[in-house]
Specification:
This protein has about 250 residues and is α+β, with helices and mostly antiparallel strands. Helix content is about 25%, strand content about 30%. The strands form 2 sheets. The chain has a 7-stranded mixed sheet, sandwiched between helices. Strands 11-10-9-8-12 form a 5-stranded antiparallel sheet, with no helix packed on it. Helix 2 packs antiparallel against helix 4 and helix 2 packs across helix 5. The longest helix has 20 residues. It starts with 6 loop residues before the first strand and ends in a 7-residue tail after the last strand.
Length: about 250
């Protein structure tokens, strides 16, 4: 299955994920991509908004129909694909901060949002949203996130070639999603840990919505969850956010 063969491109929308979900419900074929020049209500994780300036970033969503219900690896699939595409296009190595941040030297370059619908154990659809900062200058970011954000233009000192980047992204997404479909989760985990912003053995604090918990990061589980050792016991978290990393500003 090739991703990016069909592209639905718009100048503006509320959210590419919402557009893609509507298309999935109407039976749009797998691998179709929705791209918008801007999002007026772009979505991040935990209901946050995603800053989506017009023609400054890459805002897209991919329609998928996964053949099995264990879709917690999909954000990792997207992260690996973006990392490969950025390196192929610009020679820039980026890192991945679990579960869905794209980072460069501790600053946020982009993010991933996977949304899905199920009927029992069957996946009706999954929508993989990707936001990537392309052409922002520092003044283009809201003041409150200016010291935490970065763009490919700020890193490379030149305007990114969006067409080349997208071509590499479709290829990388097709590859890594193919690994997922064919049950090669071990390859996904191994590749992800190779470019993770967090190395095993670090003391971290997780926000699990219900409470914050501190412990030692032990890696990523075969299903894509974060393994944390706390109180001599290891637990795996699938819905949490890394709030702090002890002794490392870069990785937090």
């Amino acid at each position: 299955m090739e991703i990016g063969v069909k592209i639905v491109q718009v100048k503006s929308c509320l959210s590419t994920n919402d557009m893609a979900k509507d298309l999935a419900l109407s039976g749009e074929k797998e691998g179709t991509v929705v791209i918008s020049e801007e999002q007026t209500q772009g979505k991040g994780t935990k209901g946050r908004s995603w800053y989506s300036a017009r023609k400054k970033g890459l805002y897209l969503s991919v329609i998928l129909y996964p053949p099995h219900p264990d879709i917690s690896l999909l954000p990792l699939v997207a992260g690996l694909a973006v990392s490969d595409a950025v390196f192929s296009s610009l020679g820039i190595r980026i890192s991945l901060k679990w579960p869905n941040d794209l980072v460069w030297k501790g600053k946020k370059l982009g993010g991933i949002l996977c949304e899905s619908a199920f009927s029992g154990n069957r996946v009706n659809y999954a929508v993989l949203g990707i936001g990537l900062n392309l052409s922002h200058g520092m003044d283009d970011f809201p003041e409150e996130i200016r010291d935490q954000a970065v763009s490919l233009k700020l890193i490379s000192k030149e305007e990114p070639d969006e067409k080349a980047l997208l071509g590499n992204l479709w290829q990388a997404l097709s590859h890594w999603y193919g690994q997922f479909v064919h049950g090669k989760g071990d390859r996904i985990i191994r590749a992800y840990q190779g470019i993770s912003a967090l190395s095993p053995g670090k003391k971290v604090t997780l926000d699990t919505d219900r409470r914050e918990i501190s412990g030692i990061y032990r890696g990523i589980s075969p299903q894509g969850g974060l393994v944390l050792e706390s109180g001599g016991e290891e637990r795996t978290y699938f819905s949490a956010e890394i709030k702090a990393v002890k002794g490392s500003k870069k990785e937090g």
